[in-house]
Design a protein that fits this description.
The complex is a heterotrimer of chains A (251), B (260) and C (256). By secondary structure, chain A is an alpha/beta fold. Chain A contains nine helices and ten strands. Helix content of chain A is 36%, strand content 25%. Chain A has a six-stranded mixed β-sheet, sandwiched between helices. In chain A, strands 2-1-4-5 form a four-stranded antiparallel β-sheet, with helices on one face. In chain B, 82% of the residues lie in helices and 0% in strands. Chain B contains eleven helices and no strands. Chain B is flat. Chain B starts with a helix and ends in an 8-residue tail after the last helix. With 256 residues, chain C is α/β, with parallel strands linked by helices. Chain C folds into two domains: 126 residues, Periplasmic binding protein-like II (D-Maltodextrin-Binding Protein, domain 2, 3-Layer(aba) Sandwich), CATH 3.40.190; 97 residues, D-Maltodextrin-Binding Protein, domain 2 (3-Layer(aba) Sandwich). Helices cover 36% and strands 23% of the residues of chain C. In chain C, strands 8, 9, 10, 11, 12 and 13 form a six-stranded mixed β-sheet that branches. A three-stranded parallel β-sheet of chain C has the order 5-1-6. In chain C, strands 2-3-4 form a three-stranded antiparallel β-sheet, with helices on one face. The longest helix of chain C has 17 residues. Classes of the chains: A alpha/beta (251), B mainly alpha (260), C alpha/beta (256). At the B-C interface, helix 3, helix 5, helix 6, helix 7 and helix 10 of B face helix 1, strand 2, strand 5 and helix 6 of C.
């Protein structure tokens, strides 16, 4: 991304720390996400990637540090928490679609319940989104009738239905059968190409190299290396990043 | 083929149990005067009607209280949680008989409910007490169902900007409803059975009539065997309905049905 | 859910609407499990000596009388609570009860008797056979039989039952040695279990049955006057004693 100013900062984390008993999940993490950026977060399991992501929209409360959404502090329990969360969409590893309602209703539930849109607008938007993820024909299906890849595409459309400023992906392909990984990555790529701001926690290094403008490498709750994706992955300066990449099947 | 055989075995076992009961009955000292119970069939049916009405009222009260208490218990307010918890522990930790005494001779008396309800006081106070009793058990069933819903459902709802209450109302509770039906019918059955204690305070439900028959004619066997059979007339269909629902849910639900 | 709420509301309305009906009636509480004084007939109506007596009194004072049955031990609490206006349930006048209720003059005089199990008590034995500490005596809760058994047989184990039939059944089954209860009932109970029970030919005392009213009841003078006037040969009380107990002379209350 080109010149970044304070005005186009969408998410800003400062000094995030989080422990689970003796386990340090986050140990002083700073991250700033600018409008239009696609950031991938890579690193070994248990390195704090998911915890960082969950702190960014308040699903986890950090022990120390702060998160700002568009300049406003995100505080769990504060009255504006729900309004701030709407601006940051989340796609989970296990999809978490609402199984009791149709695919279309999965997309329209949040916009209509939190009254950001009337039903007609929400439905129109939902159909556009389903079309965009290639599932227009599944609008009336129940989530349980879909394959894993299809479910994850619906989950992405559901997050987009709230017209968020940024989208967070928590290992979106880890729970999928290998043959459906491609379709989900394809959808994420398309959305990235549209200029959506995204933070993606992933183990797919080649995908990360392909889709993101900036990459963050985390280990033991710290950011070890960070920078423009291509140079970072091609010529890693950090020994630990190099060791991590060497263990990965691709690249 | 195996299903047919299973049905055969089950049928045979039920028959054997009925035969065993018949043998026990034949051991009764002297003749059982079934005619005395038959002569009172109208009373028994009226009593059964009252049993059903009171139990239905109690189930209604229990559902309302149970759902409220369950919502208290899953709310983020410590005070509400403690209110819900205290209610459940106090009610589940004391016998219904004792609660009935407290309702009828302490609470109803202190509140002068006789002036409000007149001769129906015992039935209404009894139904309320029974509802409060059932509510505590229903609360635990509902809470169990809410907690059996995957945490991810909450997180997905909250990440979309729904408040705790909106997530509960639109995402979690609708998913509970289906899973709740079987255990709730179980609670309804237990409420029907507990309603027999209301005979003590003079509610003319079905046990009351059986006790009167026994007291007047000294015919214990006919009175209480018929009483048991009439309770089964109400509870067996509910139990069978539960089993059918459970089977259908198990078939329908793609998601793993959580332990309730 | 909505349907259930509606049902509940309907129930409450029903209760509220019907409560005023017959609110002027005299509500008499009884334990309809004490034949021949009171029990429930096959058609569901209450009948017996006490029922007829209170109906006659109602006719005398020109007031409708309704009856309401419950366990015996619930009667005095419900009278105190104002749920019933009077108790007519073969209730003996005792000093203890007189602290909490106002008794009418007595209308019947019934001895307290002992029914023993033929399995447990030797054929010729009298009351002394029940004095040991291995003796189990069945009584009904809150009856004078309970008090009498405790005073007369301090060593025995007194087992208290809510209902007469249950206490009697224990004796018939040989699980208790004896039942201490009123003689009228004991004669009935013995007739039900002629093989397994025997009546001891010694009375434990005499009980006077009376109607219990709330303390300070304004009904007392009228009731006493009615009972006094009718307790005589040819009077209503005598007529009912003959009808239900078979003998007016023997059961007539002569005191006062």
């Amino acid at each position: 991304m080109s010149v970044s100013t304070q005005n186009d900062v969408i998410l800003q984390a400062r000094g995030l720390a989080k422990r689970w008993g003796d386990v340090v999940a986050l140990d002083g993490v700073d991250l700033t996400v600018h409008k239009g950026e696609v950031i991938t977060v890579i690193g070994p399991s248990g390195g704090g990637k998911s915890t960082l992501l969950r702190c960014l929209n308040g699903l986890e409360v950090p022990d120390a540090g702060s998160v700002r959404v568009g300049g406003a502090p995100l505080r769990v329990g504060a009255p504006d928490i729900d309004a701030l969360r709407r601006r940051v969409g989340m796609v989970f590893q296990a999809f978490h679609l609402f199984p009791h309602i149709s695919v279309l209703d999965n997309l329209t539930l949040a916009p209509t319940v939190v009254c950001t849109e009337d039903r007609a607008t929400a439905t129109r938007h939902a159909r556009e989104l389903l079309d965009r993820v290639g599932l227009a024909d599944k609008a009336s299906a129940r989530p349980g009738e879909l394959s894993g890849g299809q479910q994850q595409r619906v989950a992405i459309a559901r997050a987009l239905a709230m017209r968020p400023d940024a989208l967070l992906f928590d290992e979106p392909t880890s729970a999928l059968d290998p043959e459906t990984v491609g379709e989900v990555l394809g959808v994420i790529r398309e959305i990235a190409a549209d200029g959506t701001t995204m933070v993606i926690v992933t183990h797919e290094i080649s995908f990360a190299a392909d889709v993101s403008s900036r990459t963050v490498f985390m280990e033991h709750g710290r950011i070890i290396a960070e920078g423009a994706t291509q140079p970072l992955l091609r010529t890693p300066t950090s020994d630990r990043l190099r060791a991590f990449l060497a263990r990965m099947p691709t690249m | 083929m195996t299903a047919q055989r299973e049905r055969l075995v089950r049928g045979a076992v039920v028959m054997a149990i009925i035969a065993a009961l018949a043998i026990v009955i034949s051991l009764a000292p002297g003749e059982i005067r079934w005619a005395l119970a038959w002569e009172r069939r109208d009373l028994f049916l009226t009593g059964l009607g009252l049993t059903v009405v009171i139990s239905s009222g109690a189930v209604g009260i229990g559902l309302i209280l149970g759902v409220i208490a369950a919502l208290f218990r899953v709310s983020r307010s410590v005070a509400l949680d403690q209110i819900g918890r205290t209610y459940v522990e106090v009610v589940r930790g004391t016998p219904f008989l004792v609660q009935l005494y407290l309702w009828y001779w302490c609470i109803a008396q202190a509140l002068q409910l006789h002036g409000l309800f007149g001769p129906r006081e015992a039935a209404i106070v009894g139904a309320i007490g029974l509802g409060v009793f059932g509510g505590a058990y229903i609360a635990e069933v509902v809470r169990g169902a809410i907690e059996s819903i995957d945490r991810g459902q909450w997180e997905a709802a909250r990440s979309l900007g729904l408040s705790h209450a909106q997530a509960l109302r639109h995402v979690v509770l609708p998913q509970c409803a289906r899973r709740l039906l079987p255990p709730l019918t179980g609670e309804a059955v237990s409420i029907v059975k507990e309603s027999s204690l209301l005979s003590i305070i003079g509610v003319a439900e079905i046990t009351y009539h059986a006790k009167n028959l026994q007291a007047r004619e000294y015919e214990t066997w006919a009175a209480f065997i018929c009483l048991a059979a009439l309770y089964l007339v109400v509870t067996l269909p509910l139990t069978l309905l539960t089993r059918r629902m459970e089977r259908r849910l198990a078939g329908e639900e793609a998601l793993p049905v959580a332990r309730l | 859910m909505r349907r259930i709420v509606t049902l509940l509301l309907a129930l409450v309305c029903l209760a509220a609407c019907t409560k005023s009906a017959g609110s002027d009636a005299l509500v008499v509480g009884t334990e309809a499990a004490f034949p021949p004084f009171e029990s429930v007939a096959t058609d569901g109506s209450l009948e017996g000596f006490d029922i007829d007596l209170m109906r006659a009194f109602g006719a005398h004072i020109n007031r409708e009388v309704t009856f309401s049955s419950r366990d015996f031990s619930a009667l005095i609490p419900d009278l105190q609570a104002g749920r019933i206006d009077a108790i007519a349930s073969g209730m003996s006048r005792t000093k203890e009860r007189a602290h909490v209720v106002l008794f009418s003059r007595p209308y019947a005089r019934v001895a307290t008797g002992v029914l023993v199990s033929t399995q447990r008590v030797a054929d010729a034995a009298g009351l002394e056979a029940l004095e040991g500490d291995d003796v189990v005596i069945a009584v009904q809760r809150k009856t004078t039989g309970e008090e009498k058994a405790e005073t007369r047989f301090p060593n025995a184990q007194i087992r208290v039952y809510d209902r007469e039939v249950d206490a009697a059944a224990e004796v018939a089954a040989g699980r208790a040695h004896a039942l201490v209860y009123d003689m009228v009932s004991i004669v009935n109970l013995h007739a039900q279990h002629p093989e397994t029970t025997r009546i001891i030919d010694t009375e434990l005392g005499i009980e006077l049955y009376a109607v219990a009213l709330p303390l300070g009841s304004e009904l007392a003078p009228a009731l006493d006057a009615f009972l006094a006037a009718e307790t005589r040969p040819g009077g209503k009380v005598d007529e009912l004693l003959a009808k239900w107990l078979g003998d007016a002379e023997r059961f007539r209350a002569t005191e006062e």
